[in-house]
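Allow me, if you will, to draw on your knowledge of protein folds for a short while. I have a record of one protein: its chain in single-letter code and its fold written as discrete structure tokens. I remain grateful for any guidance, and I place the record below:
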Amino acid sequence: MAEQTFHESIIDEFRGNGGVVTRPYPDSTLVLVTMQGARTGRRMTRPLEYLELDGVLHIFATASGAPENPAWYHNLVANPQVTVEYLTETFKAVARELPPDERDRAWRTLVDRKPRFGEYEQKTDRVIPVFALDRA
């Protein structure tokens, strides 16, 4: 429940400030992604760090370097149709997991801009998945 309250507080700040948040990190750039649960079928909204590359938003399944992908990763694989809130805009999108070459380029760019993400990569043996949020 603490995780849900944490997410809710970030979502409230995002929606109340035109897509700008001050948490969890001062350099955070977040989008809200509403997805369908893989097991439950329930709709849920998650604040996720993004990087814009070539006009496309990308999100990263870091789980802060945990050994397993975050739960939302499995939701997007099972149900890639999502709703994205980006700053003050809301749009439908399809979450597409990037193949290795595209993933590596997006990941390198993210780590160059936000070195803390490199720390997540060092904490885990898994390759951290990257998704493009292609507008539907």
